[in-house]
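From the shared-data thread, chain only:
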Amino acid sequence: MRLAAVPLIFVAVATLAAGLLSSLHGSLVPWIGGVGLAIGLVAAVFAARATHLAPAEPAPPIERWEWGAWALFAVVAVRQFGWLLFHDGGIVRTPNAYNYGDLPLHITYVEALARGVAFWPENPVFTGERLRYPIGMDLWNALLLQIGVPLALGLKATGLAASALLAVTLRRWGRGIAVLAFLLSGGLDAAGLAWLNLFLSLFVTQRGFLFALPAGLVLLVSWRERLLLRTGPGLPPWVEGVLWSALPLFHLHSFLLLSVIVGLWTLARGRWRASLAALAVAVVPASLGVYAVTDHFRAASLLGWAPGWVIEARPVLPFLARNFGLVIPLAVLLAVLAARRRPQWRLLVWPAVAIWAALFFVKLAPWAWDNTKVMVWCYVLLLPAAAEWLLGLRLEWRAAVLLLWLWPGSLTVWQHTVALRRDLEVYRAADQAELCPVLAGLPADARVATRPTFNHPVALCGQPIVEGYAGHLWSHGIDSRAVDADLKVLMLGQPDWRGAARRLHARWLYWGRGEAGEFAGSSQAWSEGARVLSGPWGRLYSLPD
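Structure, as tokens:
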């Protein structure tokens, strides 16, 4: 497991270094990408030496059935990430419906960063706002893109490597049971659920988890070894500190939850020295990361009281049974066993159950479903205790419990693994091949007015647009009503279109098939005397300064 820390250190240090250098320089440029990757490689070499020399708790031998769990995990991971983007008759598609809306947004972020937008970037899909999003994984792929790795290849390779690290760290955390329990999680049916399959709905789609889940598990294993079980010193403090410090840039929810857990375990066990050493390494970069991704702590205002999570008016018990199946009874059983005869479980199970219960009463973002990004860690915290309990049962009882627990999620995984969906269009390859070189001639930060949608070809080339998909903006806590009103005035060519363009900081206007349909009846007043760039993809009109 300690070897898993090495590639994670590489990614963490390379991304942190590139982010810092980009902030000092003003944008990400190729030499910064190369320097960041070189610094990350040096740090990984030192981490390999440090983790190799440090004493460690021996891992339990891998049993035959655990190889089967890994094999199943590998099949699903290769299917999801190997076909993350695939060509189908000139159209680039993605097979995962959960990923359909998010993947184009991440492509936009990667392309915008690689093109050299001002850093820390303004939001490339909303004018006048700094980006409030942990962009670590997208910054990593932008580094790869700048050194010549094609975007699709970089996305696929990153996903496959992260999947391998996740499979290894899950097994070290909770044996093969944890591997299966994560891969085959989910509710009793696929339609209308809130508790979805975690691999498909979070790991594949929420790209920050590609780093945060394996890195968080490495930290949890190390902290468990040092603080809970007291069987070893854990990872070297500087390795822990670097992984911990990088988490805000990749996934803020994971950083906050894991910080609470290590604080609780340290307080309960009274073993301060190594925890304080790791904290000393982490505190400055982590604080700067939180400051950046929350837009100077503005995003903290998204927290609020919201009893019921997403249950709303639905009957509570049927909702819980349909979504969580055996998970809630299992959590209650483990909590009771921890109180009676499993004291080593208490600091795992009790915080997990308490935090999970609290998430049914508070919201962490405008979209209540985003609480799942912390619930996943509560689920993960339960897995070592669940594995120990299950592996102590007779084989037939163990098989029965696993079947009841994991059968619903396995059906979802089967549906999303066997069928290659061909109805989820990300973009048309020819349009992008022709449009992106044209946009490359514009300043990287020149804002373009387009119709608001989640996969606009201008945004997918990395060029900032005035307004993207309303659902993305709302879930990030952005009130887009004023911008939306001005965008309609501009696109329809109404009398105040020049004033609207100034308020929107729009330098260009794109007119393509989608715009002609959404803004039918436009006077196109902005076309008179404008500079025009055109092609089969549509037209770009310059707007007055």
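The chain is about 60% helix and 5% strand.
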